[in-house]
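Final report, Chapter 2: Outcomes

The project's central promise was a pipeline that accepts a single protein chain and returns its three-dimensional structure in a standardized token representation, suitable for archiving and comparison. That pipeline is now operational. To close this chapter, we reproduce one record exactly as it appears in the project archive, with the input sequence first and the structure output second.
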Amino acid sequence: MKKLGFGAMRLPLLDSDDITSFDIDHLTKMIDSFLKNGFTYFDTAFIYHRGKSESVLGDLLVSRYDRSAFQLATKLPIWLIKEEGDKLSLFNKQLSRCKTDFFDYYMLHSINRGSYETIKQFNCFDFGWELKNQGKIKNFGFSFHDTPDLLEEIFSDLKKSKNPMVDFVMLQINYFDWDNPAIASRQCYEIARKYGVPIVVMEPVKGGNLASLPSEAGQLFKNFNPSASAASWALRYATAFDGVFMTLSGMSNMEQLNDNMATFLDFKPLSEREKEVLEKVKIILHGEDAIACTYCGYCVESCPKNIAIPDYFSLYNDIKKNPKAIIPGNYYNTISKKRGKASECVACKLCHPICPQKLDISKGLSAVASVFEPKKD
């Protein structure tokens, strides 16, 4: 397999306010082009696009191509398991949505300290291996969003269990988070290598944050290689690590798709000189006063005030890059007429354990409110 995977969490839309309004024609052309160029790995999940991502891949990919022409990956939503029968019920629903009778790669989704207790309670690793033994999945693993000590604990527990080690693990790896103590990409990567577990990279471009850089940082890349996109630097960085067999990219349009495919059709790891440039870019980015949100949207479902958290964080980051911009404020006013305002956050913190980036979302919303909802004298 070529190492670029099509991440189906940020698919092209007709209406940016409705994440289920897929641009079917555009998405169909993207899928066709991806496969035509020899790329075959597609990654989705039960909750992506409010549960519609699996279904649209079933319609546009599985129903239109021979099943041997691609690999399909999806994930079991651990937080929806409340009783023993839920595991099989959810899995069968995923098979139905995707119009397939097996998955090439299947994961326990987004393991953290809380969900690991559920996994142990309902023997989810045993369930995965049962599915593999039945031929309903080809490779079994998990995606991970927590601290290195928990990842070490999971691998250690698996090594002691009656089951084999998992076939792969999905980790967040990008140059911004490599030494970020909240994400700990380096440590998690090193633990996976210690146990010999192959790695799928997620968030190599950090939800698009590393594709659109502040002018000073972006210019460093352009000065070195005017024809290379910022995203290509991020993808080349994350993919070159030993043990990485797939790097996912959530592509939303043909331009992004073509740029990413070009990077992998003639893939070259970063040279030593390029690594030096990248280190300078990292210094600039870590000095930016912004919110490191990847806009995955996991937090939204749990919000009792229906606050458009990722949208507000995106607008906040935009105005931090350009304090004189008017458009972010206009967008904020439009969105907040339909959704909860940032100031309406009650600091219940239900969203905090769900956030893959370990953000203090309540604090972030307070910052948003201070910018877009100035107090009147």
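Archive annotation: Residues 272-286 form the longest helix (15 residues).
This record, like all others produced under the grant, will remain available to the consortium after the project formally closes.
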